[in-house]
Amino acid sequence: MKAGSNASIRRFLRPAALPTPFCPGCGHGILLGTLLRAIDESPWPLEEYLFVSGIGCAGWIPSPHIAADTLHVTHGRPLAFATGVKVVNPGLHVVVIGGDGDLASIGGNHLIHAARRNLPMLAICANNETYGMTGGQVTPTTPRGARTATTLQGNPDRPFDLVRLVEAAGAGYVARFSVWHTRPLIRAIRRGLSFPGFAFIEVLSPCPTQAGRRNQLGTPAEMLRALSRRCVSIARARQMAPEELAGKVLVGEFVGGEDAGGRPDGSAERDS
Ligand code: SF4
Q: I want to staple 22 with a disulfide (CB 3.0 to 4.6 A). Which of 26, 136, 180, 238 is the partner?
């Protein structure tokens, strides 16, 4: 069986987890697929991994699906639990998966300190720009102007740029892609899995049910296409004027990867 193929990754899934708990069209299923493909192409068997997740839709990516050791913990605390696991069992390959509410809001403090300490683990933030599971409230990554359950007139605040936050805090590998960019995302996850320090990957993952309906963003397919148009690679952004970058999101490897030789000013990087 070819590593990374559908047939090969199927053995990583718990049969009882299907059908998936995600809403139809949710980006998190694509993220689960890319994660499993990266693991299949990694040098370590699934038994050597531990997946840690908190509360929220992204917390479901590992714990009901992956036939491995998983730790499904309290909201915002997966990095704290993962730190304890790593101290006790440094040989485990620890992968933390959380949403933007889990890792950047409630667990934001853990995120910056995990990066500052360069803890040896991979953290994947499935950023759907809302609290999906609890009803679509605003999060620190909700785009300015977006309507949520708690910002009915549109979000007045500037969103966090998680990549720049984690980079500034000291992470050794930092990347951002969306679920549209499956091949580069698989490569980034593979790099993150083998990185000896703190690796952070932000993955933009559309939420058709909460963010999509409330903001009339169309079908899941239309949301995916819109996401692809919103994203610009770091290399391409270097050739673009600041006004062309308005409303765009830069994707690529920001620290520790191929794109990390330099970066544009990025002032318009998360202007949405
Ligand atoms: S609420 Fe949104 S993020 Fe959660 S499963 Fe449904 S579509 Fe996915």
A: 26
Average pLDDT, the chain: 92
Q: Which residues line ligand 1 (CB under 6 A)?
A: 22-23, 26, 28, 57, 128, 132-133, 207-210
Q: Are 12 and 68 in contact (CB under 8 A)?
A: yes
Structural domains in the chain, CATH included, are 6-261 (3.40.50.970)
Q: Which of 53, 60, 63, 133 to mutate to test the pocket of ligand 1 (most atoms within 8 A of CB)?
A: 133
Rounded distance, CA 49 to CA 74, Å? 20
The residue contributing the CA closest to ligand 1 atom 2 is 207
pTM of the model as a whole? 0.93
Please choose, from the candidates 124, 142, 263, the residue with its C-alpha nearest in 3D space to the C-alpha of residue 188: 124
